[in-house]
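Sequence in, structure out.
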Amino acid sequence: MTSRQFTMTPIDHQGADAQCRGCPLVVSVPPLQERCSADQWAPDTGLTAGKRSCGLRGSGRNWQSDIPRGELAFTLEERQLLNIHGLLPPGFINQDIQVLRIIKNCERLNSDFDRYLLLMDLQDRNEKLFYRVLMSDIEKFMPIVYTPTVGLACQQYSLVFRKPGGLFISIHDRGHIASILDAWPEDVIKAIVVTDGERILGLGDLGSNGMGIPVGKLALYTACGGMNPRECLPITLDVGTENEELLKDPLYIGLRQRRVRGPEYDAFLDEFMVAVSSKYGMDCLIQFEDFGNVNAFRLLNKYRNQYCTFNDDIQGTASVAVAGILAALRITKNKLSDQTILFQGAGEAALGIANLIVMAMEKEGLPKEKAIKKIWMVDSKGLIVKGRAALTKEKEEFAHEHEEMKNLADIVQEIKPTALIGAAAISGAFSEQILKDMAAFNERPIIFALSNPTSKAECTAEQCYKATQGRAIFASGSPFDPVTLPDGRTLYPGQGNNSYVFPGVALGVVACGLRHITDKVFLTTAEVIAQEVSDKHLAEGRLYPPLNTIRDISLKIAVKIVKDAYQEKTATIYPEPPNKEAFVCSQMYSTDYDQILPEEAQKIQTKSDHRQRIYIFQFHFSLVGKHRQQHFHLQQLELQALLD
């Protein structure tokens, strides 16, 4: 059966039938008033997740959706071209005033979660304005659209679910993943953030509720790095969940089954990677996010030399942590290879940091074997030592000759580290006594409480500074307020947020068409970030540049990656651009509204008519089985040419 064999009788306000030749199936489409509310003639199907959908003209229709600005920002000429003059108040405002309106609406809300919902609604309605708002004060809005608020959003995702925001691919879709990718409305995708929801932040297994993480990450790809949001795709791979509360929750949006593991899981991931690279190219960036510890390392090692991929929890966290340590060394006035580092936690984040520290020590000239001996790790069973049972391959590398110990306070007393790094999501793990001991061993102890969200932090900034009389060099994974000490000094804790890393890495990798991302990229990124910390920042306790400069930092990271790629002959975009910075800048997303010309206005209206036809067909076609798949696919093929 080909697409030309499919016919659909004309659809009007009274209802219609659709039939496929050679098949007895006839679909009755109910009258329009039964399908749509009076104030929105063509409700959003959700298939344009994260984008604006149909854009019809006329009273009572959702005419704004496909028009790239909305509200009162249209000029008089544009209103006349779009036939919406009179549907808007007569006033005219620019984008800056629109931003002010959103900010004032955020301020009147009582919680960051409510602000998150407002901003996500804005992202659906007006993408350019959404990113303009984020970029207007990234330090203010990042904690709302990403950590820590996104953690609560994921926990409540099924309750507040409105639109998908990305693609959901379940284990039952094996054999059809390529077709599901075809359903996404954008044909050019350069970056994907994918999760299986097994380890969302420090909150555990949230299954399909974890979609908030890829959506939030990619929002920062654009706001912090300048990636075009239309070329970014959030994906959740749903293989089930072990979360009992979700399995019993009638509102849960994901599969109600235990997680699939083993060969079936691996085959599912293999098919996904092949489908993505086949459709979008081998240089499509695939960022793995919040996979469980075992799968995270295994999949990274399996795919890193086959595809353009990285794991932000392992490599991104490592890069930002090492950046903070490199900045801290400017305060302690010694080398990285002089440090003794103790980790509370031995999961993907801690091991990723440890491995990058080893690489950085090697760069200083210390042999790898000696560098490894500088690092000690504590997991849920205690100090990792040689001979201890059930150590993974990754942990075994950092096991040293020592007696077994379980209590962290005793281990700190025994090892006497110069740096203590928490990455186990154990709230309060750094007790007051541990903090005081660190200050007793070191004039300027390095203490990083990197666990997210804030409720899982090993200690707060205030606890750390007060226990060490302000001598600690502190950084955290989630934001903390400034702390004023008894002596009158005010310290501003550094936030080791991965957003310093992944937007710039993604921008650079995509710009030059890098096929494989090595750990060297992340060490280079750490060095760039550390160099951007001024002496004034260090004096205030800051180990990272101000977040409001993050777009400039991302550009510098991207330019350095591009320069290195061309120097090492690993770039695939040729001819080589003579001015790397100008080349990268030319690919960065602009939040300025596009001018609507007469031919574009006509295109918007034409697309609206065809999308209305598609919507009516999709809305009622809720049958399951092969007939639904055949008819849906055929109708999409028939009408897609009209939209291009």
